[in-house]
Amino acid sequence: MTDIKLICLLIALTVCGAAAAQPIALPDQNGELISLADYQAQHPDQAVLAIVVSGRKLRLVKGWEEGLRESYPQLVSMRVADIKDEPRPSQDQVAEKLRKRAPENVSILIDLENRWATDYGLDTEEPCLLLFDSQGKLVAQFRGRASKPRLAEVSAALATWLSATAEDSADAQSAPKETST
Is 19 or 42 the better-scoring residue by pLDDT? Predict the structure, then answer.
């Protein structure tokens, strides 16, 4: 039975790891269209952590960001508010509420069409954390509220992935360069 679970886990990780970031550009509360590629362009060679959660539960993002920034102060994160309300509010209505509640320097992407949840199979009633490498490849995915055990689990995964990335980067820098004559 253990072998079957391991095979299923490996298949799930392979499928998850093979998913590339979709070129989804969403407006933030200030009307600026922003995508994962924009975050990557601003922070080349860095992973980006997307935190996707129901717009009604955005307050839960703070626990994740504060908890992870203790260990990873340079962690780049983007926040996506998945709007599920019925009747569906307008972009302006959601943006106005976010401008009143969010700090001015915090950008929150507004997903009125639930594209992130649909594309990545997310249940956004709890925060969903998606870690993308510098190439936009999804390398890890977590779901749940920030608690000490969950923060430890996510931190361990981040440490493993970030150390592997640092080793790859160091190997690439120390590799002999091809020269043309």
Answer: 42
